[in-house]
Amino acid sequence: MEHGSLNDPSKATFSFVDEDHTLANSVRFCLNQDPRVSVCGYSIPHPSDARVNIRIQTTGDPAREVLKDGCQNLMLMCQHVRGALDKAVADFRMDNPTKMETKSDSD
């Protein structure tokens, strides 16, 4: 849900339901790397309320578009980390076969 100014699309607060610090801090980090963002922060209104508010103020671009770009960048970062992790696990398994793997391979 977007809570923004009708007169100034460069400032808006977005509410994410059923989310917590994990997503909010990651999105905040990505957005603060964007030179179009002048201010970005998040808050959790109440610990029992599973909702996160992310406030974005840009240098002029619409906050909604900047948020979309930030989420896409976060997704690309996660895909890169997942790929690197999968490769490292596969390399480790190739270099360190377990007894079960070597036993079934020799049968």
From TrEMBL:
Q: Which family does it belong to?
A: Belongs to the archaeal Rpo11/eukaryotic RPB11/RPC19 RNA polymerase subunit family.
From the Swiss-Prot or TrEMBL record, give the protein name: DNA-directed RNA polymerases I and III subunit RPAC2
Domain named DNA-directed RNA polymerase RBP11-like dimerisation: which ranges?
12-82
Which InterPro entries does the entry mention? RBP11-like, RBP11-like_dimer, RNA_pol_Rpb11_13-16kDa_CS, RNAP_AC19, Rpo11-like
The UniProt entry, under Pfam families, shows: RNA_pol_L_2
Q: Name one GO cellular component term.
A: RNA polymerase III complex
Ordered alphabetically, the record's keywords are: DNA-directed RNA polymerase, Nucleus, Transcription
MF (Gene Ontology): DNA binding; DNA-directed RNA polymerase activity; protein dimerization activity
Q: Which PROSITE patterns match?
A: RNA_POL_L_13KD
List localization entries. Answer: Nucleus
Any one GO biological process: transcription elongation by RNA polymerase I
